[in-house]
Structure formats: C-alpha cells, structure tokens
Automatic annotation (TrEMBL):
Coiled coil spans: none
Organism the protein comes from: Catenulispora acidiphila (strain DSM 44928 / JCM 14897 / NBRC 102108 / NRRL B-24433 / ID139908)
Any one GO CC term of the record: plasma membrane
GO molecular function: diguanylate cyclase activity
Protein name: Diguanylate cyclase with GAF sensor
Length: 367
C-alpha cells in the first residue's frame, strides 16, 4: 500500500493536470472542487469567494454529499464576516481545522457542522494577486477520521494550485467583473458605484426603499506619500479598504467602493437612517485607529435623512460629499450627517453651475 506522502503527491499531480485541461472560470471551480474532494478524502468540498465590495463570502460551488438545503451551484449562499473571522482579520491567514464537538470553537460554526451532519472541517484560504481571494472548505462525517493539524500544509498546497488555476483561466466573466473593480483595493470602483446608485435610486422611486451613501476621505495621505513613498500610501489605502469591506459586510445591501485617489464610499440600500449612522460611526472609528494618517473625514446622506426627500443620484452624492467636506474642513473626526443646510449649499451650487453653463452657451453663440 502506498504511503500517505505518495498518495498526496499523486493527488496534487492529478489536480494540476486536471486544471491544465480546462479554461473557463466555471470549469476551473468545478474541477478544483471535484479533485480537492478526492485529495482530502472529504464528504463535501466548497469553494467560496471573498467579495470585498460587499464584505461577504459567496459560495460558488458545493460538491459531494450535500445537506437537503444545500445546492451544488447556489445563487444566494452568502456568509457575513463574523462567520469567517480569520479570512478578514488576518493579512495572510493559515489553514485551520474545526470539529463539531470543540467546546472552544465558535458555536455558530460548530452548529453549522452539526446541522449538515458533519463532524470535522478543514478550511484553507485561497490567495490571488497578493490578497485573500476566498476559501477552500472540506468536511468529513463522523464515521471518518477527523482532520488534524497534520493536514494543514497539504490543504495549503491544494489551495495554491487552485489559485494557479484561477490565474491561468480564460475567465471572461472575471475579466468583465474587473471593469467594475478597483485594482489596488479589490473594492468596487467609481463606475460600479454609479451603476449601483442608478439602480438603487430607481428601486427607491418604485418602492420607497431607503438609499444612503457614506463618503470618506483620508486625512494626511499626502504626508505619507511625501515622507514614506507611494508604496506606504497604497498600504494605508488597502488597510482602509479592508475596514470599508468589514463595515459593508455588517448589513445586506451594502457596496464598498474606492471612487478615486484617497476617496471611498459605501452605498447602503434598504437600511434605516439609524443603521446608516452606526455604519458611518464605525467607519470613522476604524479610520481613526490607522497609523500614519489622521483618520478620515466622513460624511453621509440618505433618502430618508434629515434633508428630507432626495429624488436623484447626483443630489444624494453631492449631499454626502458636502457633509464630508465639512468634516474635512473643520477637522472633525466623527461622521457628519447631511442636513437641510447642506441641501441649501447643494442647491446654490447647482444654480451657480446652471448660470455659468448658460453664460458659456451665450459666449459661444456670440451674444
């Protein structure tokens, strides 16, 4: 009988060969799940992607002996950051194991194992482009030997091969998604937030569902760039992006984005004003703890906020931006909510802009 080292080496070879034969993103995910299940002698394997823009983990495939409520390719199986704390709290998390009878483990995760009639699990982060891309999850039943720390290095190697498959795949779907993703931080970009705002405001018009926007601007980033270099400045932006992702992950219907330079935002749909205020306060508090900068100026506005009804995307954005600018100008570390005073400023600026536009048209016409 072949020893364990030979068996695992063959399993790694099989996975590498199988991934080399496929090209599409969906094929890579499917093959990775199927081969990983065999390699890890698991009853079920799941592959999930960490979506930084929403701060949540999205399951892409479940393969093996599934629970009655599980789907092979789930459309809406998401998990909040509290369900996978190591993935979001550590820069380079290591693989780890979990048992359903572990009294010291997170009770939510052990309960999740028991509800699926699984006894032990092994979780390995998948890295891609220098960031945590997602996780490889494998689970065994009670009639199998539980996973131990001796399996961790092997799982990490499997995850690395999956990452290589993702890098080599011709993923049109993934490439299209990149058009809406900020390259540095992995958050949504300005294009994505504009599309999201348009859709959210249309939904608000049809259903009166509240829409809110939180904007934050880093204080002191120029000093970091000038004294320590742009690599240090980029590191600050990545750290702040991680906090935005965590804030967005606290509620459903939130999207975190970098909208340019050192300016970020969180679009929140379907949450009351009080919840939006809590999110803005959490973001400001997190930014204040970052080293090398002076926190962030945070402003926010909503369709159901103190300004009264807000009917269009541009007004909502300008209100949140005006509140953020006040926090920046006054050196306020806490978030500033848009009020009727900011609405007046926005209306006056819009009127001035319209007058200037009319003047330019008159000049062009020779009047």
């Amino acid at each position: 009988m072949a020893d364990q080292a030979s068996v695992r080496l063959r399993a790694l070879t099989d996975l590498a060969r199988a991934l080399a034969r496929v090209h599409g993103f969906g094929q890579v995910i499917t093959v990775a799940a199927e081969e990983s299940r065999k390699a890890l002698d698991a009853r079920v394997v799941s592959l999930s992607e960490y979506v930084r823009a929403t701060g949540q983990l999205r399951v892409l495939i479940n393969h093996g002996d599934l629970a009655p409520f599980e789907e092979r390719f789930p459309e809406e199986e998401w998990y909040a950051p509290s369900d996978f704390p190591r993935i979001v709290s550590e820069e380079y998390p290591r693989p780890w194991t979990l048992r359903s009878d572990d009294a010291d483990a997170d009770p939510r995760r052990t309960a999740s194992l028991r509800s699926r009639r699984r006894h032990s699990a092994l979780i390995s982060p998948i890295f891609f482009a220098g960031q945590v891309w997602g996780e490889l999850y494998a689970a065994r039943a009670a009639d199998q030997e539980p996973y131990t720390d001796a399996d961790l290095d092997f799982a990490g190697t499997l995850a690395a091969l999956v990452s290589a498959g993702l890098a080599q795949a011709d993923r049109q779907e993934y490439l299209e998604r990149l058009a809406y993703t900020d390259e540095l931080t992995g958050l949504a970009n300005r294009r994505a937030i504009e599309v999201g705002l348009d859709e959210a405001m249309e939904l608000h018009r049809l259903t009166d569902l509240p829409v809110a926007l939180i904007i934050c601007d880093v204080n002191g980033l120029k000093r970091v760039n000038d004294t320590s270099g742009h690599d240090s400045g980029d590191a600050v932006l990545e750290q702040l992006a991680g906090h935005l992702s965590s804030v967005a992950g606290k509620v459903n219907g939130a999207l975190a984005a970098r909208i340019g330079g050192d300016e970020f935002c969180v679009l929140v749909v379907g949450q009351p004003w009080g919840t939006v205020t809590q999110l803005a306060e959490d973001l400001a508090a997190r930014a204040a703890k970052l080293e090398d900068i002076d926190g962030a100026a945070v402003g926010y506005a909503a369709t159901d906020g103190p300004t009264g009804a807000v009917a269009d995307r541009d007004t909502l954005f300008r209100l949140a931006d005006a509140a953020q600018y006040e926090a920046k100008r006054e050196g306020i570390q806490r978030p500033v909510a848009a009020t009727a005073r900011h609405l007046l400023q926005v209306d006056e600026a819009a009127a001035d802009g319209s007058a200037a536009s009319r003047d330019r048209r008159r000049i062009r016409r020779g009047r």
